Amino acid sequence: MKKFLKIVGIILLILIFTGGVYLFSIKDKINLTVNILRKYSEFINENNIDTKNIVAIELESDKDYKEVQYKNTHGVPLTLDIYEAKKTLKNGSPVLLYVHGGSWVYGTKEIPNVISPLLDAFREEGFVIISTSYELMRGEENFNKQISDIKDTIRWIYKNKEEYNFNTDKIGVIGASSGAHLSLIATYSKEDEFIDDEDLKNYPSNIKFLVDFFGPTDLNTLDMNNVTWDLQQVIDSLGNNKEEIFNKYSAINYVDSNEPNTLIVHSKKDSLVPYSNAEILYNKLLEKKNKVNIITLEGASHDFSEFDIDEIISVGTKMLKFILQNI
150, 197, 206: which is closest to 178 by C-alpha? Predict the structure, then answer.
């Protein structure tokens, strides 16, 4: 009996020691989670949940970098903005890359107010936020170049990790609308696909996770009968190749069994990109045994001009949880 108790005692000591090591290993993540949740809650309380008071994330001249050129191919210089971390982390700063929307023909890399408070909370805890540009379409389809631009942005992050103290093991991409479409293909496609800048082609483009806001995943589902004049010119340039092009550049056709963890955010009220795009991608990722979560909104329009504030807060909280689980 004494021998048995002695063995049990040794096992308990091992378990206690192992548990202690584990708790120590996740201590930083626990602190990070608590701090970001606190800051995000403070924002909500201070603004009385009134989105009119939301302040966009701002550059600080002594900590941030505006209009950093990441490549110049075919005489088209492309830039990104770097919002530096406000805390130094031992293994470098995790990176959150934002890719703007705008129907492939419009948009700027300015970070929208809706997600600024959440990203700023991450900045406070040692994350770098990068917002990139890509070559907008002017009169003709240019999906290949745009996808390459996003992929080259990720490659640039790897190339410059020492200079800017990036932790390239923890890169997350947040894409909105057409920016989500480009991000999905850029991150789901193979390393040797979508190469534009020869100086960047040998750098990796793999990421840890992806957040898809209202992204088109099957271009054939989009109603192209009531679009802006600029986008109509692009569609007209496709001629009889429209179906072929739409199939070639639909994200669902790039899903394999080793994709980054994906969070899909989509609204049933989206009249521009039907909710079926979220369902198709979600089911395809599950079919290929990938990790995927989906947040379904009931009241938000595609551009968030109509929304339920409780849904916005819920999205922020769930997005926060997703990111923290994947770093």
Answer: 150
CB-side exposure of 193: number of CA atoms within 13 Å?
14
Report the CATH number of the 47-325 domain. 3.40.50.1820
- Under 8 Å between Cβ of 177 and 183: no
Pairing of strands 166-176, 93-99: parallel
In the prediction, which pLDDT does 39 show?
Answer: 62
The answer to whether 295 touches 315, Cβ cutoff 8 Å, is yes
**Owner of token pair 């949880």:** 321
Distances (CA, A) of 202 to 165, 228, 256, 298: 20, 38, 22, 43
* Count of C-beta atoms within a 10 Å radius of residue 105: 19
Helix, strand, coil fractions of the chain, as percent rounded to 5: 45, 20, 40
Res 28: pLDDT: 61
> Which three-class secondary structure state does DSSP give residue 2?
helix
Strand arrangement of the beta sheet that strand 209-213 belongs to: 65-73, 76-83, 128-132, 93-99, 166-176, 209-213, 261-267, 292-297
Span 121-176, pLDDT tens digits: 889 889 999 999 999 999 999 999 999 999 999 999 999 999 999 999 999 999 99
Residues 6+ apart with CB under 8 A from 211: 172, 173, 174, 175, 262, 263, 265, 319, 322, 323
H runs (alpha helix) in the chain: 2-46, 116-124, 143-159, 161-164, 178-188, 229-236, 242-248, 276-287, 309-325
Distance CA 135, CA 140 (A): 12
At CA 37, angle to CA 54 and CA 115, rounded to 5?
35
Average pLDDT (100-126) is: 87
